[in-house]
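protien #1 (seq + structre)
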Amino acid sequence: MSTPLAIELLGVRRGFARSGFALEVDRLEVPAGSSLALLGPSGSGKSTLLHLLALLEAPDAGSVRIGGREVTPADRDVRLQIAAVFQRPYLFKGSVLANVAYGLKVRGVERTERERRATAAFETVGLAGYETRGVAQLSGGEAQRVSLARALAIEPRVLLLDEPLASLDPLLRRQLARDFARIARESGATTVWVTHDQDEALIVADRTAVLRDGRIAAHGSADDVMALPVDEWTAAFLGVAAAQRGRVVGSADGLVEIAVGEARVFASGEAEIGAEVHVAVRPEDVLLFAAGSEMPVTTARNRLPARVTSLEPRGATLYATLDAGGALLASTVSRAAATELALATGTDTLAVFKATAVRWRPIDNG
């Protein structure tokens, strides 16, 4: 396993005169050995940013630093330590083994060692025994596994993945996302994964950055970014309610009591009384019960009377927004549950969620 390299972008700008689009990143860090998911809508700059990291392009201003030093596309020694996997596998005609060993061949690795490392890469991605097959015999998922094996065979210190699963069907995509994430972690490489799928981002990365119009709208741990979006645009893009401001009114026995409007929300942790915080709960963690009904036995500390303010279909489920005495919540509800509860705009209900499901962080007023 090679030693991973840290990645850092400082004051980076990359503009395109014809379209008028410009990527502008004041600062972005990916610690050595960690994984970052780049999320954002189409045209937000994800692929441009990845091209800069892959040293396929140079920024118009600012610097890209890999392994603690500024690098450019002319730094061939660094480029040879970077591997990329794209949405299309880009396999050439011939055997699967020849494809996986290609990167080693151009790096001057002798044949016996090439074949050894290629065979190990096949085993890593679950394709042992595929070496002699032709690429035309591969399914879409197998072709992407070969593409990943080709990247891993060179033992990269930086691994870049540009929506590698986007063209696959949803079921296969979820399965491969878990497999690819595990393999990338075990490789030890610093990993950057571009995706437009937030569920995929939670699977593959421990940190997330959300891009909007060429700028980073949110950046931090995957849990914080997904559960505590502090602006309306990021919240809408992620499909959750924006974090709200609250004030700590109690803290004891590992529980924090937070006043949000007239509601009181309990969360795990400790904080100073009077501290101002951002607080949010992901919709999948909020269960709804009929108002006034007898609840089943539960350890959930939060049980808030709430009124449905909107009800929106989202595929197989419904997305309900709720007002619980000034605490604005959301809940993902199955269609069967919505029918049973007779949910509609204006319906009174009971929102139930555990203290451990509440995400919060202090507000820096400095």
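ok now protien #2
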Amino acid sequence: MNLSQLAHLVALLETGSFTRAAESLHLSQPAFSRSIQLLETELGAPLVDRIGKRNEATPLGRQVARRARRVLAEVQEIRREAELLAQGEAGAVALGLGAAPSALFSVPLMRHMMAAYPRLRVRLSRGPTDALLASLRERALDALVVHVRTLDNDADLEVAAMPSLASGFVCRPDHPLFAGPAPSLPQVLAYPVMSTGLSPEIRRRVAAARPDGFELHMESEDIAGLLDIAARSDAVYLGVLASAAGPVAEGWLARVPPPPDFDIAAHFAFVTLRGRSESPATRIAREFCFEQMRQAARS
């Protein structure tokens, strides 16, 4: 028994004629009749009573046809869902975002998906990379966008480097740092510094500028919260400048001129599990994130 035989039976009972049913399916009548006979042989009983020129379903034929219609409808729905998934118009994507990617991508990504792919379900998770990696390895997430400094054991990961983003210091516009000439790095570090975390290289460079010792005053994944504190205090935010672009444009934060020899950048990656097939929904999210990162790098 196969789907074609079930479709042939349904067509026969709907048309009441071997000839018309065969024509509707673009089959020769002998081939169509043979298909019905094979189905009857497998089931061990007639499915159609041939009464002159009329063909009527037997009791078994009616039962088989009723179930066949349901099966064929499900098959049609499976094909439709597969087509929609292939086009990225349905399905789901679960994406894990580090602090800066979350600040940059979350709202634009959700807006884009809602406008362009309204049937596609999106779940975004923010958190430390080790927790996101655990979820990725458990297949609870499809992909991550995180800082490469937070990746260590990546033997089972596909790590696609993204455009780097300029980093620097941001504080309130009337901060004492703007009272005189462009400040040096030790002058900036004399104030409380907040960040989502520092790479070993950046930590080494700031430590060299503060021989008496340096530690972040505040460390948090909540960039919006850190920026709000910077706007209300003498604290200075150190991080990806694109994540503060909105507050800077609105005038309640300002970029501190880069101290000499302290032009720094953040390097992010789109991370998936090695060997895991990429779904169309994940591909759409990946392409959007790369484009957003390119735009942020250009700005």
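The mean pLDDT is 89.
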